[in-house]
């Protein structure tokens, strides 16, 4: 006879509930009994995603549920909140009081998809409350562009270790003075401004000046000129994770000095010209022997699938053959010579994704023989060799087989 839920110890319930990812499952656990409820409530309110409304339908009406409404009714739940993902559309003045009750809040994300840009005052009020709470992570995404009022308030925000700013444009301001004020505390920066990427090539040196004060950065995502990235790494000795875009607008100059950063996780988004000169540029970013653990290249050029240069894989193996564990080449084809290097020179490779130029380069396992093939010339191939798993993409594949970010 199975045990009753009331007889299960709280420690056992806590171990199980920690692995529940679906909020519906967590909510169901709160309805079992008092033990399940006491254990599930802290996990349920640890992360509040308010970007997508929760709709409760009944026979008579449709009710939109908001987590802040529950916190206003039960203020003790506010101490469990650690992360909030807020959308500008689901804002009300009354719910600001619920935000003040989240004393242990550590991360806040603001998303504004409105085209009118009339939420600047609301966002500044949020920042005032968040500054009083003392959060560690702040991420802002504004589709219509960050206004001068919003950016001025953001520049006065201090005490955070992780900052993300994504927008179509940014007001012209003194970024160097701002980075000097907050740079000593930042360890993670996501700075993706579309208009800045177009303006940077005319002021390449400003990109290096903007980041030279952030010497403690460990993770950086930046949309900047291709030629300025190696120079930036000379200012960031502790950087281990880099996510950048590659544009070939001419001859790419290599850095005169070796970058101080010893990159472990490198992600490249190829935007133009299909990656001409990409191999030399990647090796210039990670010149230290056996420092790179994962390399991800997304080919987003309009020309479509490109081919990895044959000598690049050999040079990559000479530099990082004993340390590289994950290699993801999306919309990039690899010839037989490159595949031979993968199977012989990378001894610690655990995960691999690419497009084979030679059909049936690796024989399909018998267990996968019944799976339908999208194209008989380039079938989806999965081969397990020892403890390592390799997967290849069909030529028309767009969605990545593996996660976008490397597994730590």
TrEMBL record:
InterPro entries tied to this protein: LRR_dom_sf (IPR032675)
Superkingdom, taxonomy of origin: Eukaryota
Protein name: F-box domain-containing protein
Organism the protein comes from: Phanerochaete carnosa (strain HHB-10118-sp)
Record lineage: Eukaryota, Fungi, Dikarya, Basidiomycota, Agaricomycotina
